[in-house]
Specification:
It comes from Jejuia pallidilutea. The protein has 533 residues and is mainly beta. It is built from 1 helix and 23 strands. It has a domain at 444-531: Immunoglobulin-like, CATH 2.60.40.10. Strands 20-19-22-23 form a 4-stranded antiparallel β-sheet, with no helix packed on it. A 3-stranded antiparallel β-sheet has the order 17-18-21, with no helix packed on it. Strands 1-2 form a two-stranded antiparallel sheet.
Length: 533
């Protein structure tokens, strides 16, 4: 004992488990599945309701899921053929839900879980052949797990275009007649392979009686015509016909015309030309022909056109064999020297019916004709120069006469020492050369040298010097210089017939030269430039 009364904290002094500081335990079942998922505790003297001195077990694997607790049964479907339909179910006991498992066993509708094609709702197909032609025209189907007899998974092809007609099926051959020429007769048959019957086609090939299906005129029963030409004049006198498909040689569809007026005479036929001659000028020669076209021969007409030789049937003088004349003027002096004639129908140009006169004395000389004037010079002093002229009119040329009057240069036809070009006697007061005056010595050479001609220029082998008559028989010195003044030729010549020929110059070089001509009697000279080629 003690002076003080001790504390009395024991809440139940008859229960050794209840005392201050005692720990009490209670299981926590959050998901109300009767399995604790955890434990909570309190410290108290008195035992709280539901609490105990020992902590209860906590087997609940997920205390927030009432479906997960120890001993729970989980189910899963078995799909052996992987067709998504289960054929059986298997189960396990476990707290936690295994992957793919569920609380309820799945249905197992798969009628054969070893065949992936058999499952609930599978569609099975079968072809329908209404016309028993072995080709399906339609398909029917049914839904079943197991495969019905005759059905398959795929719908069969339905190529039969008409399943109510046994003649229409794929690969059927159809025939049609070909009438290329539209004459209603077939010439050939064509066929097609098709299910449906094409328009106009049939199962049997039609007959092909047309002998030529490219010609609408050739068909069975056609009538062909041919003309009869008894006289072979190409015109028919009658017609015959035949019935045949093919066109017989020479026959046609239309009966030919029969215009022949006499089919026994080959000359009489339509369009025949008949001829008759026309003689307008009554010279017994036809100038033209007229013709008619007729089948029968007109009176007086014939098949051949008569000759029409009359060149002018309006002129009785013109006919075949007529003689025409024309004067011949060979020398074109307008006078005829002879006459020629031709036999011709038409009058040739210039010809006439009568022969013309032929007065021309020489028709090969145009200078000789009637009325021609002839001239002759008179040389009274016989110095060969005429002092006057006389003339006559005659057709033929008289001896010594000419057509042109000769010159009369003789200034004194009574003195034979006076004439043109006569040697002039200087300073004698007489004009011997008829130049109109007497000549002095110096003037003579000066004047005469102006008339000297030197040719050719350029020269080759020879130089020709032509001198006036007054220098006849006078001696000249001929000198040739080169352009350097060197004397290359120095010769003396006598003037014979008023000409000097300087030859042998071929050895001179080709170059220009100076020729000097000197009158040795008077010493008068002239120079001229020449070129040697």
């Amino acid at each position: 004992y003690s002076l003080t009364a001790p504390a009395t904290p024991d809440c139940d002094d008859n229960d050794a488990d209840e005392f201050p500081g005692q720990t009490w335990y209670i299981g926590v079942d959050n998901d109300n599945d009767t399995f604790f998922g955890s434990v909570t505790s309190v410290t108290a003297c008195e035992q709280p309701v539901g609490y105990s001195l020992t902590a209860p077990a906590t087997p609940d694997c997920d205390d927030n899921d009432a479906d997960e607790f120890p001993g729970q049964t989980w189910y899963i479907g078995v799909d052996n053929d992987s067709d998504t339909f289960f054929g059986s179910v298997t189960s396990v006991t476990a707290c936690e839900q295994p992957a793919g498992y569920s609380l309820v066993a799945p249905a197992t509708p798969d009628c054969d879980d070893n065949d992936a094609n058999e499952f609930p709702g599978q569609t099975w197909y079968i072809g329908v052949d209404n016309d028993s032609d072995t080709f399906f025209g339609s398909v029917t189907s049914m839904t079943a797990c197991e495969q019905p007899v005759g059905y398959s998974l795929t719908a069969p092809a339905t190529p039969d275009c008409d399943d109510n007609d046994a003649d229409e099926f794929p690969g059927q051959t159809w025939y049609i007649g070909v009438d290329n020429d539209n004459d209603t007769f077939f010439g050939s048959v064509t066929s097609v392979t098709a299910c449906e019957q094409p328009a106009g086609y049939s199962l049997t090939a039609p007959a092909t009686p047309d002998c030529d299906d490219t010609d609408a005129n050739e068909f069975p029963g056609q009538t062909w015509y041919i003309g009869v030409d008894n006289d072979s004049d190409t015109f028919f006198g009658s017609v015959t016909s035949v019935t045949a498909c093919e066109q017989p040689a020479g026959y046609s569809l239309t009966a030919p015309a029969t215009p022949d007026c006499d089919d026994n005479d080959a000359n009489e036929f339509p369009g025949q030309t008949w001829y008759i001659g026309v003689d307008n000028d009554s010279d017994t020669f036809f100038g033209s022909v007229t013709s008619v076209t007729a089948c029968e021969q007109p009176v007086g007409y014939s098949l051949t056109a008569p000759a029409t030789p009359d060149c002018d049937d309006n002129d009785a003088d013109e006919f075949p064999g007529q003689t025409w004349y024309i004067g011949v003027d060979n020398d074109s002096d307008t006078f005829f020297g002879s006459v020629t004639s031709v036999t011709a129908c038409e009058q040739p140009a210039g010809y006439s019916l009568t022969a013309p006169a032929t007065p021309d004395c020489d028709d090969n000389d145009a200078d000789e004709f009637p009325g021609q004037t002839w001239y002759i010079g008179v040389d009274n002093d016989s110095d060969t120069f005429f002092g006057s002229v006389t003339s006559v009119t005659a057709c033929e040329q008289p001896a010594g006469y000419s057509l042109t009057a000769p010159a009369t240069p003789d200034c004194d036809d009574t003195d034979n020492t006076i004439y043109p070009g006569a040697p002039e006697i200087t300073n004698d007061g007489i004009d011997q050369d008829c130049n109109g005056s007497d000549q002095t010595t110096l003037e003579r050479d000066k004047i005469e040298f102006q008339n000297i001609s030197v040719t050719p220029n350029p020269f080759g082998d020879t130089i020709n010097i032509a001198l006036p008559l007054s220098y006849n028989n006078i001696e000249f010195s001929i000198q040739i210089f080169d352009m350097n003044g060197r004397l290359v030729i120095d010769r003396h010549y006598s003037n014979i017939n008023n000409r000097i020929n300087v030859s042998g110059l071929d050895k001179l070089d080709q170059a220009p030269y100076i020729i000097k001509i000197i009158n040795t009697a008077t010493g008068f000279s002239m120079m001229k430039q020449l070129i040697k080629f």
